[in-house]
Design brief:
Elements (H helix, E strand, L loop, with lengths): L1 E6 L7 H14 L3 E4 L4 H5 L40 H14 L3 E6 L1 H13 L3 E6 L15 H22 L1 E7 L6 H10 L3 E3 L7 H13 L5 E6 L6 H10 L5 E6 L11 H19 L5 E6 L2 E6 H5 L7 H10 L2
Helix pairs in contact: 1-9, 3-4, 5-6, 6-11
This protein binds 6-O-phosphono-beta-D-fructofuranose.
Length: 328
């Protein structure tokens, strides 16, 4: 069997570890693997990863030493052409022409939605892996890259706290997550932030100022408020609105942005990537298709792609209450 692997959408720490797991699992079972460059664009362009031996195939040694590396050696992209019916059909035709029997796309919501669309018209098997820092997919406890992104955010917030404390200031820290506040909420709990603004829970400016005023009355002299990228109009606009509404703290804003996508994956992300990459190949060899390999309660699970991509993961009320209780 010839299995294609690709990374698509925003890169996430652990994608390399996942490709490594796909390659090593497939090759040890006697199958061939090819890596497409730049996500789905690589299928449309027939652009393969070419190893040092000049071969299109990925071998055991092609993935040596990458388990610890951030980014993705297969590179990634968002591919608007593939998202069109014509583009999806073109990809299916090219995969057939190349003799590819199965595909493991590694990415987030858009990537797996694309995989599901491809599966409707292509005869090959498709099992995807959850590669996104956003942790917004259903059916898996975590996505590859999320824990590393939270670690990076917490390290940055810890540093900002020093300045916030020294100057009795409030920092608004914008973190990635267009539709999902998961990174923001976990960072807030782990870094001891006083407030978190997430897209799932919009707040009136007046209520936010009242909360900050109460925190000041409770003796808080510095505030860190983490704000998800997808929260209303962004952190700079929010700072202005808070100033206009009489926020009692002097404020500065920081946008961490793509910093969260970089860096070497933490051990948990390497393990998650290894488990899901391995499961994706085993599932394909068992005849599965239209699935995502995830992890629930530390055990590998297969989830229908439709379930994984349906809406966005619901934020945990327990975590919200925990932050509310501990941030006073
Ligand atoms: O999906 C991952 C993600 O990092 C989101 O958190 C963010 O909104 C988006 O990608 C940014 O995408 P780009 O790198 O294409 O600007």
């Amino acid at each position: 069997m010839q299995i294609g692997v690709l990374c698509s959408g925003g890169d996430a720490p652990g994608m390399n570890a996942c490709v490594r797991a796909v390659v090593r699992t497939a090759v040890s079972e006697g199958h061939e693997v090819v890596g497409f460059m730049d996500g789905y664009q690589g299928i449309l362009d027939q652009n393969f990863f070419i190893g040092s031996a000049g071969s299109h195939r990925l071998f055991m040694r092609s993935v040596s030493g990458i388990v610890k590396n951030g980014g993705t050696f297969l590179h990634s992209s968002r591919c608007p052409e593939f998202a069109t019916p014509e583009g999806t059909q073109k990809a299916a035709d090219i995969l057939d022409k190349l003799g590819v029997d199965a595909l493991v796309p590694i990415g987030g919501n858009g990537t797996l939605a694309g995989a599901h669309a491809l599966g409707k018209i292509w005869k090959g098997r498709i099992v995807g892996c959850p590669g996104t820092i956003d942790n917004d997919l259903n059916g898996t406890d975590f996505t590859i890259g999320f824990k590393t992104a939270v670690q990076t955010a917490v390290e940055a917030v810890d540093k900002l706290r020093d300045t916030a404390s020294s100057h009795h200031r409030m920092f608004l820290v914008e973190l990635m997550g267009r539709h999902c506040g998961c990174i923001t909420l976990h960072t807030a709990i782990a870094a001891g932030c006083e407030a978190a603004c997430i897209p799932e829970m919009p707040m009136e400016i007046g209520a936010l100022v009242e909360k900050l005023t109460n925190l000041k009355k409770l003796g808080k002299t510095s505030i860190i408020m983490v704000v998800a990228e997808g929260y209303q109009d962004g952190v700079l606009e929010l700072q202005k609105k808070l100033e206009d509404a009489g926020c009692p703290f002097s404020m500065r804003s920081v946008v961490l942005g793509h910093l969260l996508r970089g860096g070497d994956p933490c051990p948990d992300d390497r393990i998650l990537a290894s488990m899901t990459g391995n499961l994706a190949v085993r599932a394909i060899l068992d005849g599965e298709t239209d699935k995502m390999a995830g992890v629930q309660n530390n055990r590998p699970v297969l989830v229908p792609l439709t379930e994984a991509i349906e809406g966005h993961r619901v934020i945990s009320q327990e975590e919200l209450s925990l932050l509310e209780c501990l941030s006073r």
